[in-house]
Design a protein that fits this description.
- By secondary structure, this protein is an alpha/beta fold.
- The protein contains 13 helices and ten strands.
Length: 426
């Protein structure tokens, strides 16, 4: 698995050179002032000067080593909701390691994510996971060239945990830090595979909080073609599962139960498919499911197991069919021949098979990430952050946490050479 920097059309060098030189200059300026102030009190012998020289030299050599390395190693941190993800991505050799901790057991008793509990669990798990992943890869702080963390969208408390740790480590290690858009991470997750899609393409982002169709020309060049006007597809899966008294998370449980269902017994509507456009709506389908369950149940008792399976099959069929119809429409309208599906729901086997079969008739291909990278994970954040950090993008000392963040407001990914040329022309 190789992801060469030049593949994306930019040079990784100039942004890092500029950042490192400015950082070193600032460090030596501050240290110089500090040394001047405390010199009469502290430096009473040659040994003290020698010790300071050793510290400065090690820091300088560390920064210069980072500067001269052609590749870039980025630590990725994901804490947007109920999963703690950490990964290290190398721009030359690919993904070095990733680790994921799921909070499903923490929230299962409540039937959904409790934000405060999610934040506290991130606090407990994040630093030990970072230490462990560094140990697993035999890397030290000096081997990390940048840090990327999820800045949004997501739960504000959970985002603050990841942002605080990332920004603190970046400051302590002297490396650039960047807040990454959570959905951009999902969108780029298939790039971690051995056979990644080529730009441009259409992306179906389908998760518990988002359902969007996006035209992707390149990293950062996004156009929203359609999105859900109410519930996201993943949210509808979870709520339908709750109607059948299934535990959280409900999406995978609905899909598993649907395997036992029989086609034809129930027919659920395909929302907004009888009108032009690429927007989605799943609130009506959710209500239809609720009414169907109420009709089939008796005396406050759930329907028999086969009836539940038939309802699950009909519900999943309606959601998958709706997504397939909209994706097929987007492919026809744009003329693009590549579809990327990403997000938690993209792991649904029925959705993958239906899309592959439908788009094959249009001579179009479907790409998706492995199941482990469909749900929230640190690998996608490390990859997305690496591409932007190598292009010279990074944040200041501000900790970014943006609960609502439109995808199409992200800046395009351009090389520092292009940015420099534009600045000179102006």
């Amino acid at each position: 698995m190789q992801h060469k920097p030049h593949k994306f059309g930019y040079s990784p060098c100039w942004g890092r050179v500029f950042y490192t030189l400015v950082t070193l200059g600032a460090k030596f300026f501050v240290v110089g002032l500090f040394t001047k102030a405390i010199e009469p009190v502290v430096f009473t012998s040659v040994a003290h000067y020698y010790a300071l020289g050793q510290i400065l030299r090690s820091r300088l050599l560390l920064d210069l080593a980072r500067l001269l390395r052609k590749e870039m190693r980025v630590l990725g941190i994901e804490t947007s909701c109920d999963e703690t993800g950490v990964a290290i991505y190398d721009s030359d050799t690919g993904l070095l390691a990733d680790a994921l901790y799921s909070q499903v057991e923490v929230h299962a008793d409540y039937g959904g994510v409790v934000p405060e509990l999610a934040s506290r669990d991130h606090v407990r798990k994040l630093l030990p996971m970072i230490r462990q992943i560094l140990a697993d890869t035999a890397l030290q702080a000096g081997d990390i060239d940048g840090i990327a963390y999820t800045a949004g969208p997501g739960l504000i408390g959970a985002l603050m945990v990841g942002g605080s740790v990332a920004r603190s480590l970046g400051y302590a290690w002297g490396v650039p830090t960047l807040g990454v858009h959570h959905m951009e991470g999902h969108l780029l997750a298939p790039m971690l595979e051995d056979n990644p899609p080529q730009y441009p393409f259409i992306a179906l982002l389908v998760s518990g909080g988002h359902t969007q169709l996006v035209s992707v020309k390149a990293i950062g060049e996004y156009e929203i073609l359609g999105e859900s006007l109410d519930d996201a597809a993943g949210e509808a899966f979870d709520k339908a599962a709750k109607m059948l008294d299934m535990d959280y998370p409900g999406g995978p449980r609905i899909a598993k139960l649907a395997e036992k269902g029989e086609a034809g017994r129930f027919r659920f509507p395909r929302p907004m498919c009888d009108r032009p456009g690429l927007d989605f709506s799943f609130s009506g389908l959710k209500t239809f499911t609720l009414n169907t369950v109420a009709k089939e149940r008796g005396a406050s008792v759930l329907p028999d197991e086969q009836t539940q399976a038939d309802i699950a099959w009909a519900f999943q069929d309606a959601v998958v069919d709706t997504l397939m119809i909209k994706c097929r429409r987007a492919i026809k309208e744009t003329g693009l021949k590549t579809l990327v599906i990403a997000g938690g729901v993209s792991a649904n086997i029925c959705l993958r098979e239906r899309l592959e079969k439908a788009l094959a008739k249009l001579d179009a291909k479907v790409f998706y990430a492995r199941n482990a990278f469909c749900t929230d994970n640190g690998a996608m954040i490390a990859y997305a952050g690496c591409q932007r950090l190598m292009a010279g993008q990074h944040d200041d000392l501000t900790i970014r946490a943006v609960p609502r963040w439109p995808l199409d407001t992200l800046p395009p990914l351009q090389s520092n050479q292009s940015a420099l040329a534009s600045a000179i022309e102006e």
